[in-house]
Specification:
This protein is mainly alpha-helical. It has 9 helices and 5 strands.
Length: about 180
């Protein structure tokens, strides 16, 4: 959502330093994120928001309190409709602190950089794994040190380090946690 808002603000010519302007985009844009697609105001931005430029833009937008307020309200609205899976850097601590299942997925910066380098949207930028790892480490620091909704693990979240794990193993661990929660009275 933050990436899409950053994309739309830039598309409209709104400076990412214009807190009120970006917050207006966050409040007013028609935004859908379903089945692997992200659409904002009728623009399919699924690929466009997965670039290094949008990584940086999203980090800037995520630091703006009125933008976070608008998007957290939207996210809570989505959750009010029933069971769902939501991912983000403050979902378990700010957006849905009462969620039945909270998982803090992590991996080393090098592992995440290797994965990202394999993403065609990022691969086109020509960044090597080391450069990408540095950028990810900087983004993590930025998100952990922001005043509003910093990146932190919820105290009741299960930590899963995915470094070196095949995706099927990660999915199996996540599903085991969900099934255990469903089995609780």
């Amino acid at each position: 959502m933050y990436r899409a808002v950053a994309w739309r603000a830039l598309d409209r010519g709104v400076s990412l330093d214009d807190e009120a302007g970006v917050a207006s985009v966050a409040r007013d844009a028609a935004l859908q994120a379903e089945q692997g697609r992200v659409v904002i105001d009728g623009h399919d931005v699924t690929r466009a928001i997965r670039t290094p430029d949008m990584d940086a833009a999203a980090a800037r937008v995520a630091r703006l309190a009125p933008v976070r307020d608008a998007l957290v309200a939207r996210q809570r609205g989505y959750a009010a409709d029933g069971d769902l899976v939501m991912e983000g850097r403050d979902i378990g601590t700010v957006v849905l602190p009462q969620a039945d299942v909270k998982i803090f997925l992590d991996a080393s910066a090098e592992e995440r950089a290797r994965r990202r380098a394999g993403d065609t949207a990022h691969a086109a930028s020509g960044g090597d794994v080391s450069t990408i790892a540095t950028a990810l480490t900087q983004r993590d620091h930025s998100d952990r040190s922001r005043t509003v909704s910093p990146l932190t693990q919820a105290s009741d979240a299960t930590y899963i380090d995915t470094t070196g794990l095949p995706i099927d193993d990660v999915v199996a661990q996540v599903l085991a946690l969900v099934r255990a929660a469903q089995a609780r009275p």
